[in-house]
C-alpha cells in the first residue's frame, strides 16, 4: 500500500514537472500551413460541441462580437510552452475593421485604461476543446503547433460564414497568442529603472484569406511614433521637473522673506503688540 502511495506521488510530481517544462523560443518569418506540409502527419480540430457553442454565441448577438478569447483545452495530449509564450492557453480571435477589432491587437496591454473598458462590451471569453490527431508534441509558442492551432480555430470561424447575415470579413480573421518581445540591453535598463519606450509583449498572429493561412513570426506593435512620444515627454519631465520645483520654492521663499521684513518694521514702530504669524520659517533662515 505504501509503495502504491509513493508511486502515485512520484507520478504526479513528474506530471507537474512536464507541464512546467519550457522550451526555447522559436523565431520564424512567414509560414503557410496548407502549403508546407505541417498538417500532413499531425493535425488539430475543434471539438464539434465547441464549434456549435461558438456559432450559437455569434448568432445570439447578431454577429456583433468583435473579439473572442479562447481558453484552449487539448485532448488527449499534454501541453508544453516555449519561454516566450504568455498565457499559452489563451488565444484571441478577431477580424478586420471596420466591424472587427484587429487594430486593437496592436495596442499596448494598457488598452483597458485607454478605452475605459468599452471594448470589453464586445469581447467574449469561452472554453474550447481541441482534438489532436497524430503523434506530435503540443508546444504552444512553437512554430508547428502555432500553425496547427491556427488552422483549427480559423476553420471553426469560417464555418460561421455559412450562416445567413454573417459578415464576410470572418473569412479574413486572425488568431493570436501573446508572446514576449526581445529588447536590447540598454532599452531593458530604461524599462527597469526609468520608463519603457517599447512594449515588451505583443501578439503573434496567423491570418486567413479565402484560400490560405499565413502565420507571421513577428509580433504586432503599436505605431512607434505615438508610443515613443509619451516616453520622450515623460523623460523630459523627469529631467526638468526638479529644476521647476526649485524655482517655485525659491519664489515662495523670497516672498516669505519680504513679508517677514515688513512685519519686523511694523513691530519696531510699535503699532502692533501681538504677532499675527510666526516670523520664523524654514525659508527665512536660508
TrEMBL record:
Residue ranges spanning the membrane: these are 225-246
Signal peptide range in chain numbering: 1-15
Q: Which UniProt keywords apply?
A: Membrane, Signal, Transmembrane, Transmembrane helix
This protein's name: Uncharacterized protein
Please tell me the species this chain comes from. Answer: Mytilus coruscus (Sea mussel)
The lineage is: Eukaryota, Metazoa, Spiralia, Lophotrochozoa, Mollusca
Amino acid at each position: 500500500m505504501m509503495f502504491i502511495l509513493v508511486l502515485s506521488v512520484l507520478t504526479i510530481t513528474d506530471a507537474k514537472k512536464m507541464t512546467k517544462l519550457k522550451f526555447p523560443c522559436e523565431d520564424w518569418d512567414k509560414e503557410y500551413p496548407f502549403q508546407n506540409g505541417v498538417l500532413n502527419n499531425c493535425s488539430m480540430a475543434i471539438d464539434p460541441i465547441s464549434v456549435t457553442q461558438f456559432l450559437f454565441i455569434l448568432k445570439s448577438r447578431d454577429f456583433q462580437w468583435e473579439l473572442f478569447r479562447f481558453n484552449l483545452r487539448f485532448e488527449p495530449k499534454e501541453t508544453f510552452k516555449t519561454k516566450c509564450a504568455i498565457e499559452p492557453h489563451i488565444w484571441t480571435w478577431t477580424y478586420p475593421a471596420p466591424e472587427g477589432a484587429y487594430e486593437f491587437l496592436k495596442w499596448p496591454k494598457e488598452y483597458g485604461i485607454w478605452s475605459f473598458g468599452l471594448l470589453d462590451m464586445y469581447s467574449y471569453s469561452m472554453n474550447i476543446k481541441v482534438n489532436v490527431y497524430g503523434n506530435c508534441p503540443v508546444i504552444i509558442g512553437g512554430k508547428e503547433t502555432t500553425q496547427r492551432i491556427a488552422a483549427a480555430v480559423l476553420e471553426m470561424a469560417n464555418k460561421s460564414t455559412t450562416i445567413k447575415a454573417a459578415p464576410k470579413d470572418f473569412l479574413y480573421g486572425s488568431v493570436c497568442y501573446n508572446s514576449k518581445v526581445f529588447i536590447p540591453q540598454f532599452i531593458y535598463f530604461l524599462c527597469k529603472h526609468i520608463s519603457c519606450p517599447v512594449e515588451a509583449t505583443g501578439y503573434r498572429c496567423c491570418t486567413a484569406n479565402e484560400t490560405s493561412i499565413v502565420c507571421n513570426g513577428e509580433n504586432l506593435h503599436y505605431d512607434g511614433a505615438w508610443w515613443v512620444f509619451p516616453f520622450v515627454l515623460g523623460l523630459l519631465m523627469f529631467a526638468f521637473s526638479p529644476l521647476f520645483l526649485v524655482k517655485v520654492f525659491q519664489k515662495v521663499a523670497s516672498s516669505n522673506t519680504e513679508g517677514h521684513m515688513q512685519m519686523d518694521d511694523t513691530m519696531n514702530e510699535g503699532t502692533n503688540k501681538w504677532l499675527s504669524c510666526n516670523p520664523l520659517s524654514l525659508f527665512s533662515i536660508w
